[in-house]
Every structure is written in structure tokens, then in C-alpha cells.
Structure to design on (226 residues):
């Protein structure tokens, strides 16, 4: 199977929305945040099988960044999520089912102002007390060039699930495009969503409806508990 096709299967397994992994997030295994009915059991089974043959990848904490940007009447607001956990599968020859699961702790949001941060976390927007997690599950992938693609998936935010599509650029950690199943890989992805479609339409006269989601994610082959 050629390099491009193998990369397609890799990216089908690599999502991203949003995303850093802390040591505490590893307690109970990589798949722990997705159990108890949060996702279909067949998705977790894909993770287990991939781990058993060394084809499971995990997003790295120190060199990954996930966040959002939105314009308001006063200034542009930017925020980063500091805690999330994600895993992705990759079969040896690119065949078979690929799957990515990413969970983000909404309360880990960090902005450049305490007042703005508190407002975004409040019931007016994210409502972290009632909706503590963001969940992304990949569903498809289409190449647009040798190093760019459209990555599709379902995003659950503020208790609402909607399909989203990310514009993706792929390189290895050294900056070389077209990596073929390396130990480390770098994916940059962006998309724009409507916050009203996720039930967050508060202060619509002051804050734009369109929110840009952006990430720069480093993933490494994973060895550990799933």
C-alpha cells in the first residue's frame, strides 16, 4: 500500500479538535474517559486491539495545543484547554477500521483574563458544572492535496452533538510533509462552528456567533494501559 493511502488511514484515526494530556489523565488507562456508555463499545474494542499489536497512538501533552478564538465588540478572545485525553488507532497496512476518541475537560480552559474566563465557564456559555466534557469522534477523511485534508467527525459540546469538518495539514515532528506511520507526527487543524448551534447564544449582540477552533497536535505511538 502506498504512502498516501496509509496516511489517509492514519488521519482517519486522528482527530482533533482540541487538545494537552496531564499525568492525572492517565489514571485508569487511556480509554477510561470514554467508558460507561459515553461511546459505542465497538470503538473501545478498536482501541484495545490496536494496543495489543502496537498500533495505538496518543496525543502528547507538552507540545500539543488546542483552543478557540472568537471576536467580540471589545476585543478578540482566545482560550486554550489544558487537560484532555485522546487515542487513535492505526493498522499495520492501513486496512481495517480506524478510530479516534478525544475528551476535553472544559474546566481546564485558560484565557488571558480572569473575568472573561469566569464568564466563558459560566452557565452563559460552556456551563462547566452541567457539561464538564467536550467529546470528539472521527467519522471520515478526504485528501485535498498530498499534505492537506478534510477531517470529519462528531463534536459533542454543551450537551449537543453536531458534525464538524477540520481543515488539516500533516507533517512529521521535524517538519517533513508526507510522514509514513512514524513514531511521532504533527497535525494542525482548524474549523469554524456556530456557538448558537451548540446552545450557546447568550450575548449575541456583543459576541460573534462564529467561533474558530484550532489545534496543533503531536501524537506518539502509545505503550500503556488502555
Amino acid at each position: 500500500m502506498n504512502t498516501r493511502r496509509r496516511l489517509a488511514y492514519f488521519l482517519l484515526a486522528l482527530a482533533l479538535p482540541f487538545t494537552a494530556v496531564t499525568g492525572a489523565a492517565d489514571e485508569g488507562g487511556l480509554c477510561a474517559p470514554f467508558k460507561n456508555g459515553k461511546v459505542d463499545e465497538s470503538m473501545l474494542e478498536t482501541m484495545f486491539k490496536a494496543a495489543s499489536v502496537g498500533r495505538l497512538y496518543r496525543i502528547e501533552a507538552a507540545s500539543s495545543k488546542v483552543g478557540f478564538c472568537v471576536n467580540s465588540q471589545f476585543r478578540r478572545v482566545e482560550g486554550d484547554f489544558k487537560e484532555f485525553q485522546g487515542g487513535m488507532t492505526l493498522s499495520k497496512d492501513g486496512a481495517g477500521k480506524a478510530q479516534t476518541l478525544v475528551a476535553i475537560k472544559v474546566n481546564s480552559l485558560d484565557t488571558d483574563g480572569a473575568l472573561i474566563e469566569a464568564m466563558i465557564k459560566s452557565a452563559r456559555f460552556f456551563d462547566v458544572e452541567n457539561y464538564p466534557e467536550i467529546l470528539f469522534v472521527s467519522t471520515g477523511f478526504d485528501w485535498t492535496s498530498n499534505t492537506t485534508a478534510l477531517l470529519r467527525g462528531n463534536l459533542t459540546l454543551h450537551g449537543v452533538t453536531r458534525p464538524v469538518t477540520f481543515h488539516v495539514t500533516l507533517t512529521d515532528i521535524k517538519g517533513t510533509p508526507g510522514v509514513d506511520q512514524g513514531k511521532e507526527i504533527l497535525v494542525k487543524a482548524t474549523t469554524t462552528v456556530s456557538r448558537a448551534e451548540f446552545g450557546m447564544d447568550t450575548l449575541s449582540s456583543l459576541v460573534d456567533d462564529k467561533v474558530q477552533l484550532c489545534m496543533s497536535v503531536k501524537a506518539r505511538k502509545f505503550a500503556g494501559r488502555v
